[in-house]
Amino acid sequence: MIDVIVTSKCREAEGICSFELTAADQRPLPAFSAGSHVDVHLPGGLVRQYSLCNHPEERHRYLLGVLLDPASRGGSQAMHEQVEEGSRLRISEPRNLFPLVHEAAYSMLFAGGIGITPILCMAERLAQIGAAFELHYCGRSAERMAFIERIRSSAFADCVHVHIDDGEAGQHLEAARVLSAPSSDSHLYVCGPNGFMEHVLGTAREQGWADAQLHREYFAAAAATTEAGGFEVQLASSGQCFQVPAERSVAEVLLEAGIDIPLSCEQGICGTCITRVLEGEPEHHDMFMTDAEKARNDQFTPCCSRAKSARLVLDL
């Protein structure tokens, strides 16, 4: 864990604030790569993940961009209402679950709204190493698009295409045209609202992009659809069995029983709680694992996923 001080809090756009963090002991912060995030421990015991959006060569600060989500589960509300310049926070070291493929011949970056945070860091890195790329930044209105002036004054401004929903029709994103005729050594990265991401990814697949070329990071899980019902989990190490009712998660049941399960996002986004499944068939609700990983049915996320079989035997 790292103790940091909020040295700056700035309004970047409607509903979006940036937070500059520096080490409380004034030492250089751990290095990070483009696409990384940190876990931020917030007042009230909440832990939330926020992408780093400053240049990955910087060690004197981390910069976060946080949208005040109307459907906030408490994290973004705490950041906006309780965290101020001078506040002291604890964060994790950076982790990267959304890395660049540096050997790509061409990179296509797509950001929707607050999804610009990891994408901006990627653009900074690609521009630094002289890689070929383009960035498509989409927003509902110009007033809601953070870091737009930073982007327009950047060294890679010529690689950026801005698409605004309430702007002129000629500048709207034509995903099918932009994603047509992909080369096998190109890679696509997308972050933003779930509907935006599914549109970009679905269009890419229709245009012939392979799944291995598609990279995404979700900020929120989609609403789970499942038939209500309980099931049983068994711990392989002890043989203990626990009933998981329809209204509770596996993680909640195990934590209540004193079984240690590392948790962070609690939505199946971050992958922190992934647990091996030795027997049984999981019902996957996470947005972290790939379709191929889910098809193997040898691991699942106990924070949100459930079971299709009557019992799951876990490697715990």
TrEMBL record:
Domain of life: Bacteria
Transmembrane spans: none
A GO MF label: oxidoreductase activity
FAD-binding FR-type domain: residues covered: 1-101
Record domain 2Fe-2S ferredoxin-type: where: 231-316
Source organism of this protein record: Pseudomonas cavernae
Keywords: 2Fe-2S, Flavoprotein, Iron, Iron-sulfur, Metal-binding, Oxidoreductase
Keyword presence, Iron: yes
Protein name: Oxidoreductase
